Amino acid sequence: MRVVLAEDLFLLRQGIIQLLEAYGCVVAAAVDNGTDLAAALAEHRPDVAIVDVRLPPTFTTEGLQAALRARREQPGLPILVLSQHVEQMYARELLADGTGGIGYLLKDSVLDDEQFIDAVRRVAAGGTAMDPVVVAQLMTSHSRDEPLAALTGREREVLELMAEGCSNTAIAQRLTITEGAAANHISNIFTKLTLPPSSDSNRRVLAVLAYLNA
Amino acid sequence: MKTVPVTWRGRLGRATLDTLVGVAIATGALLSVVLFVTTAYFIVLCLIGIGFLALPYLTRAVRRLCDLNRRVAARSGVPVERPYRPEPEEIEKDIVGWMRRCKWILTDPATWRDLLWLLLNCVVGLAGFVPAALLYYAGEGLFLACGLWRPLADGGQGRWYASVTVESWPAAFAAGLLALVVLTGWLFLGPLVLKWYAYFVRFLLGPTRGSQLASRVQHLSETRSGALDIQAAELRRIERDLHDGAQARLVSLGLQLGAVDRKMNQDLEEARRMLRQARTSSVQALRELRDLVHGIHPPVLAERGLADALRALGLASPLDVTAVVDLPGRLPDPVESAVYFAVSELLTNALKHADARRVEIVAWCEDDTLRTRVTDDGRGGADASAGSGLAGIRRRLASFDGILEINSPPGGPTVINLELPCALSSPKTSSS
């Protein structure tokens, strides 16, 4: 898996490179600013881009903007955005085109290497990886909506994990239930939210997030 | 002038009103004599102590009359601000408080200017009769012209009207014409007289440059001490959060790593468990630091500016928030930050205290002022004087010459307006 990495802090950049290489990824380019990122993405066309939201020269949302621009030029380019903080607004902007291959995680997530690599792989494969903090915010800010109120506590938990991008197996593991039970909850959720069922895990999450964003 | 009458009818109405106001002014001028003499008398009596008893009451009457005249001046398009020093806040009910009040009155230069105005107004204020006199004179001329000159003419001498001796019909006609001229004069002169009078009022009853500066300095020193208090409290909070939170966690992280180091050779499995624990600690430390940073300067505000930061606040709130923000670009940092935290607190209030469901945030720039309106459909009854967070917001905004306006009848809805001057860098000396 070929990765382009954009992170302006030297130590963190080196750390992530080491981490990625330890899990067999190839870092095609590691840059420290928005301008170089755009060039690197155009040149290397990586399997996934890992991008810090805040990058030089402006130290605002340079990374996010560069990533979104690159995605317009290369539709479907998988992007995993790392940030020191999570903001619903950015999550919505990333998810806006609805084509998947999007991740938005706190920088802390690199501390848990397996989960981080799992997220990178999921995004590269066209899935999503949303930080639990974002998902939790999305859930609370829509907790007054009628259809969500109809969900049971367990279904809500399942929905949150779905939104993070977990597969049925992962959900079953996290909640220590059988895979069949997880699938059952999911189909119940679809019914209650009136979403057409689909086997594609990515579409499923996007549908959930699209619903939450509405 | 507030409204410029364009039609004759409008002008006539205006002139009539001016005449009435003029008469009121002149009556006030007669009252001035009384007030002046009484006040002067009691001030003199202050020298032997007795005058102190009556002084506050008299001053109140004097100021009321002065305020009325300020309003009259404002009506003529010459706004006059009140120049008085603010009354000392805590006044004892006993003789000491009474003396303090007298001291406050006597040391305020505006009191003495009021007195001088009373004296001069005895004469100048009589000018208020001018429109009425003109109207009366015009009326007299018209009456004469109607033929009333005959019964009024005394002993065949004719009656003298505006340099015409009315003793025959042609003379009466001429007098009628002159009366019309006077009437026209009444139409146009009335507002003019009132305007001159308004300048006179402003000259003595308006704030002098010195008193303007004094009230400005007082406002600034009050808000500065408020700002310093807030800042000091904020620093203490940050220090405490760092000390009890992230710093303590990092220490425990170090301890945990030390323990892992010791365990390494004995029990690898246990060491690994402790490492995982250490990782959890580091995540927690990060989370606390992140919350702290968010409390100091929210990243979205730094990255995107106020408009998006307000929208983000709305998105993050469990309430149904609509944010309509129309700003020309980035505003000065302190302004953005002040408004952001104010709105954030208002949203919290709406959620916690007002039990609201829907909140609307509207923000726009107008006349170099950032105006923000936050409306919720909660139960209302918000009150800044109840020592709530609203008073805190008001104090914070005051240090930027900002205003917090609350309209929250019991039962709701609550409408809160924030106003902040955007151009903070420009020197501002006028009192606000």
TrEMBL record, chain A:
Keywords: DNA-binding, Phosphoprotein, Transcription, Transcription regulation. The modification 4-aspartylphosphate is found at residue 52. PROSITE patterns: HTH_LUXR_2, RESPONSE_REGULATORY. One of its GO terms (molecular function) is DNA binding. The keyword Transcription regulation applies. Residues 2-122 form the Response regulatory domain. One of its GO terms (biological process) is regulation of DNA-templated transcription. It comes from the Bacteria. SUPFAM superfamilies: C-terminal effector domain of the bipartite response regulators, CheY-like. Pfam families: GerE, Response_reg. Residues 144-214 form the HTH luxR-type domain. PANTHER family: TRANSCRIPTIONAL REGULATORY PROTEIN NARL-RELATED, TWO-COMPONENT RESPONSE REGULATOR. This is DNA-binding response regulator.
